[in-house]
Amino acid sequence: MGKKVIFFEVEGGTDKGPDGYRPDTMPMVDALQQRGQEAEVIFFNVTKTQQIFDYVKEHGIAYVSRINPGNLQHEEAYFAMLRELCQAGVMGMPHPDAMISYGSKDALSKLTTTNLVPDDTFAYYTVDVFKAQFPISLALTERVLKQNRGSTGEGIWRVHVVEPLAEGMTTVPLDAKIKCTEAKDNHVEYWQLGDFMTFCEQYITGPNGMLIDMRFLPRITEGEIRLLMLRHHPVHVVHKKPADTADAFSATLFSGAHYRYDAPEDWAALVQNFLAQLPQITSLLGNYDLPLIWTADFMLDTNEAGEDCYILGEINCSCVGFTSELSFAHRVAEEILASIHENTPIAALNK
Fold first, then answer.
1. pTM (2 decimals)?
2. How far apart are CA 172 and CA 22, in angstroms?
3. Domain co-membership, 112 together with 140
């Protein structure tokens, strides 16, 4: 009997169907089994970590992680187990450190040498560096601060100075009044800069704390462009148009954005440029195999020649869902099989 593809889930959470599984998990299991590849689902439980590891090491040829980070209480133990499985020869889809490297907001600051991210994009890992650099960044242009934790726009702030700075000033005074709009629901708050930076310390301190500081792109009001990838294959493009209100810049459904699904061919310039950058992206983010199912979010900008260009805003590869199009499971199954055959000696496939 050939080895199995193991799908990892956790019990509970709002992403489960009536059968207790994510709605897009069993379609992938079924699609693999239809192609003669053994597959099953295992629910990760931290109290059974060693038992799960031993089973997958013996019976698994690859794993596919389908756990939403918001449902995972013991992330470090889970990732440690996945690392050990990869070291033992089980193929990681994706490797846990690829999940961290691609999914962390500071991926943007690591990609400033590509043409996807402006070079005035900064990552703040300490409060001191944040307080030293951010007033300088804000003096140059309107900014967006993004916390590493959180989701659906929480802790993502559009920040600009209410009154223009005096000519020649290169840093914003701490008592300057600033307008802050949170992406979660586009609500507006007014602060003094110093007080706001003190408020933002919560995003830097604690586990995985960090802030990304990048320039605000006014054309975000034209929509965010999400590219869905299956390893190195573009699948479709989702155009997310923010709500048509004065301060709206968030493209989350929660904030009232409208979604449209397009073919990759409809966004040829974006897709071709992104694919051309993939080798450099892979190198800069740790040289891991590309994730199985992942997304890259872009915003429109205008380059020095007055042409459209696309700025990367975020990568997600932890647990990208496709519950609205379950037939996609067959393409995923084909990609899993292709990846296994590319990375596994023929003799090992039949063990």
1. 0.86
2. 48
3. no
